[in-house]
Amino acid sequence: MESIHAILKRYWGYEAFRPQQEEIIQSILAGNDTLALLPTGGGKSICYQVPALAQDGICIVVSPLIALMKDQVENLKKRGIGALLIYSGMSRKDIIRTLENARQEYFKFLYVSPERLETSLFKEYLPALTINLIAVDEAHCVSQWGYDFRPSYLRIAALREELPDVPVLAVTASATEAVQKDICERLAAAPGWKVFRQSFERKNISYSVFKIDGKSTKLVNILKKVQGSAIVYCKSRKRTSEVASLLQMHGLSASYYHAGLAQPERAKRQQEWIDNKTRIIVCTNAFGMGIDKPDVRIVVHIDAPDGLESYYQEAGRCGRDGEKAYAVLLYDEKDIEELQGLHLVRYPSFPIIQSVYEALVNYLQIPVHSGQDRSFNFRFDEFIRNFKLGAHQALYSMQALESDGWIDHNEKAFTPATLVFTTSKALLYEFYKSHPEHETTLTTLLRTYEGVFDYPAFVSESLLVKLLRKDEDEIKSELQKISSYGIIRYTAINDAPQITFRKNRVATVDLKINLTAYNKRKEIFIDRVKKMVQYITAPACRSFFISHYFGDESAKECGVCDNCLLKKKNALSPGEFDLIAAAILLRLSQAKVNATELIAELKTIRKENTWEVLRFLQAEKKIITSTEGLLCLNVPH
């Protein structure tokens, strides 16, 4: 067995592992189920790729997004490592060929979308594969108490029953302690997980929050002040184009990105930003997953996110090179009001969910008692227009149906263009003689895509445009024509959003969802939003607040966020501290009071100074919070 350090050097060119990577790898090689919490850009993929390469057999990688898996497979191929991919939308023939190839020693990774795990075809071939590891990427998706629950991830538990002796590595960048526990319980084949957590501190990132009415002006000023590559996150697609246009008007190099753009256009804009041809990408949260661009200097959220999990991941896309970077959040009073009322929008009533379900099955023309495991191209805008539905009530009702296992709605993924030769080399030579007009195209494919004779390869029509000097429609037409002769099997790109029904259609009155779990997810969401509002408004160290939210008790105050810098600027003298402490203790000796009212009463004292003394008195247990949520003196009984 090649040593893990030799593998790291051979395929990645690194002399040493990052912190905790080696310990995680050794845990897997020892046969332990392992949970790894590594920050965005922390090198999660190496933690399963290296141990898989160090052993005989193939590693199954479960990942939520086809585009992300495709990028991983392409990156492994560039390093000379055999990798395959099975996803929704592949033809039965291509799946069979892929699974047959997975039996060959050359292939070390089989990426699988979670909904494929329980198909009869996958189960049929599974016993013939020598599986050395199951890697679960974005593992927080398995927990219904997490911020991005995907019911299809629950199928991994059934895979574990088929492979009880194969270790699991579950990796995620952000999960609270409750979600960590849920991941281990839901994926467990046996008790006893090894859990590795990197510190959630990103010491090179300075977090700042600005309450401001003129967000656009502030954004322009920030981006002119902080040079280098930048990401600006917005809450809606429309807003991305508006903000990008504003930045361009001020002479800044900017483009926008969201899931509604055609896939080739998304790929083009993303690549131009990665190559620094575009300095600023203005985007929705559809952007960023799987992109490892180390030199991003600043991430700005121009709209307040609804939770620290997503905020931490998105903000963490800056400063991966270890150099100084900035994460900035801009908000106004309206943002706070919207956040506090968001649960009413995100969790529609059951009658609304029923009405959206009825509209959906009618829109897709699915008869009662049919539809299970069928996929449909889905135009959300057309759907809500035809049935006169509100966009929010339709979207979040569909999410409720998805969380309960009725449907899968995928608006971010796409089916990439694939091509495989379906003839022998002898017959291909005969085809050249009878159809010489296609020889250049076929020869170019064979030279450009290694292994295209043996398994479906992802092909880029835009690359073929450059190589063959033909326009894209002409190339697609030619490939479809050659496909009709039985020489190749070509599947054009499909970037239409899709809905897959996981159960047969039922009459609307017979629709049932688990309302107990639904209401619990709503309560957890309300708590998550409260924590986000606290992060925005509290004068605490930003980094310290985030770390403690994720259960990292070892974190220290960063000294570089806006609150820490203000604290340094307004440092209290011992005399001032004692006077404020005395005023607080005197007030609490009279009656209990909540913190906001106390600060309002002590209006002659700076709010930040009162908070600082309050935190100290609470840490020293001189004051405590009562069961009603009020501050009071800690009087021993």
How would you portray this structure in words?
This protein has 637 residues and is α/β, with parallel strands linked by helices. The protein folds into 5 domains: 4-197, Rossmann fold; 205-340, 3-Layer(aba) Sandwich (Rossmann fold), CATH 3.40.50; 342-414 and 496-526, Orthogonal Bundle (Arc Repressor Mutant, subunit A), CATH 1.10.10.10; 418-491; 570-633, Arc Repressor Mutant, subunit A. Helices cover 45% and strands 15% of the residues. A 7-stranded parallel sheet has the order 3-4-2-5-6-1-7, sandwiched between helices. A 6-stranded parallel sheet has the order 8-13-12-9-11-10, sandwiched between helices. Helix 2 runs parallel beside helix 3, helix 15 (350-363) crosses helix 17 and helix 25 packs across helix 27. The chain is globular, with a radius of gyration of 27 Å.
In short, what is this structure?
Helices cover 45% and strands 15% of the residues. It has 637 residues and is of the alpha/beta class. The N and C termini lie far apart (65 Å).
| CATH architecture grouping of the largest domain | 3-Layer(aba) Sandwich
Number of helical elements: 27
Largest sheet strand order? 3-4-2-5-6-1-7
Mean pLDDT, as a whole number? 89
Shape summary? globular
Question: Any descriptors?
Answer:
637 residues, Rossmann fold, Arc Repressor Mutant, subunit A, 5 domains, seven-stranded parallel β-sheet
Secondary structure elements and pairings:
Blueprint: H1 4-12, H2 21-29, E1 34-37, H3 44-53, E2 58-62, H4 66-78, E3 82-86, H5 92-101, E4 107-112, H6 120-125, E5 131-136, H7 155-162, E6 168-172, H8 177-187, E7 194-197, E8 205-211, H9 215-225, E9 229-233, H10 237-249, E10 254-257, H11 263-274, E11 280-283, E12 296-301, H12 308-315, E13 325-331, H13 333-340, H14 342-346, H15 350-363, E14 375-377, H16 380-386, H17 391-403, E15 407-410, E16 418-421, H18 425-434, H19 439-448, E17 457-458, H20 461-468, H21 472-484, E18 488-491, E19 498-501, H22 515-537, H23 542-549, H24 562-569, H25 574-590, H26 595-601, H27 607-619, E20 623-625, E21 631-633
Parallel strand pairs: 1-6, 1-7, 2-4, 2-5, 3-4, 5-6, 8-13, 9-11, 9-12, 10-11, 12-13
Antiparallel strand pairs: 14-19, 15-19, 16-17, 16-18, 20-21
